[in-house]
Design brief:
By secondary structure, the protein is an alpha+beta fold. The chain folds into two domains: 24-76 and 109-133, no CATH class; 139-239, no CATH class. 27% of the residues lie in helices and 19% in strands. It has helices at 34-45, 57-66, 81-89, 113-125, 145-149, 185-188, 229-239; strands spanning 29-33, 70-74, 77-79, 102-107, 130-133, 139-141, 156-157, 178-181, 195-200, 206-210, 223-225. The strands form four sheets. Strands 7-10-9-8 form a four-stranded antiparallel sheet, with no helix packed on it. A three-stranded parallel sheet has the order 1-2-5. The protein has a two-stranded antiparallel ribbon with strand order 3-4. The protein is globular. It starts with 28 loop residues before the first strand and ends with a helix. Residues 58-150 form the Glycosyl hydrolase family 13 catalytic domain.
Length: 240
């Protein structure tokens, strides 16, 4: 309640990051959306390239020749398949899950897993190219390993934040013990709800977990917002 105030940065604001002087000023990086890149490579080389270990040496040689020393691979992690389901429910029949709707921080199974990644990493390093990837500390996928095991880690309420919200759609969880339901008006495109419904069928407990958001746009309906204050609260309650 009350008047909102925009955060102001001043000259005393702490720059709390490392300058990484040993490598950052020298890196020349190219970003590749992994699935898009491998589709392009499949067409270029006229064979199926779907695993990281199948990326041709010729491509790495070309990157080295162009002077790149870093390869940023977008979409390495195991994605929440609920993200793909939501996109297809909402009218995009060819959509894949978002790279930023993560299920778990393991190399995606359909990219060949860790051994496939290690193969690419070693071949790239032999050419002086380091691999980079994203991490998403703000949120996870709407269905993720953490949502299943630790729903208390997320920003949530025990009631819908707005009385107009309803959650009568299909269960996205894929787990017989859990229910995850998107708010109905996403499908009619008449509202962009800030929460989804999480149900533990074993206990009957319901949570209304907030979607991920960075404060600049609508909620991302295939994500769940982590609660960074949770660890602070637990520390205070434990140590006073």
């Amino acid at each position: 309640p009350g008047k909102s105030k925009a955060y102001e940065y001043d000259i005393m604001e702490l720059e709390n990051y490392t300058r990484d002087k040993e490598w950052m000023p020298k890196v020349v990086m190219i970003a590749k959306n992994v699935y898009v890149w491998m589709d392009q490579l499949s067409k270029k080389y006229k064979r199926s390239i779907t695993m990281l270990y199948e990326i041709p040496n010729e491509e790495l040689d070309q990157l080295k020749e162009w002077g790149f020393t870093g390869l940023w691979l977008i979409g390495l992690w195991e994605r929440s398949q609920a993200s793909k389901t939501i996109k297809r429910w909402c009218g995009n029949p060819e959509a894949e899950a978002s790279a930023y709707s993560t299920y778990d921080y393991t190399i995606a199974h359909d990219l060949g897993g860790y051994e496939s990644y290690k193969n690419l990493r070693d071949r790239a390093m032999a050419r002086g190219i380091r691999l980079a990837c994203d991490m998403v500390p703000n949120h996870t996928g709407i269905v993720s390993k953490w949502i299943v095991e630790h729903p208390e880690w997320y920003v949530s309420l025990h009631y819908p934040p707005f009385p107009s919200y309803s959650y009568s759609g299909e269960n996205l969880s894929g787990d017989p013990n859990k229910g995850i339901f998107l708010e109905d008006k996403y499908f009619s495109r008449t509202d962009a709800a800030v929460t989804f419904k999480h149900v533990d069928f074993r206990t009957g407990e319901e949570k209304y977990i907030y979607h991920g958001n960075d404060g600049t746009s609508f909620p991302w309906n295939d994500t769940a917002q982590l609660n960074f204050l949770k660890s602070f609260y637990l520390t205070v309650s434990k140590h006073g």
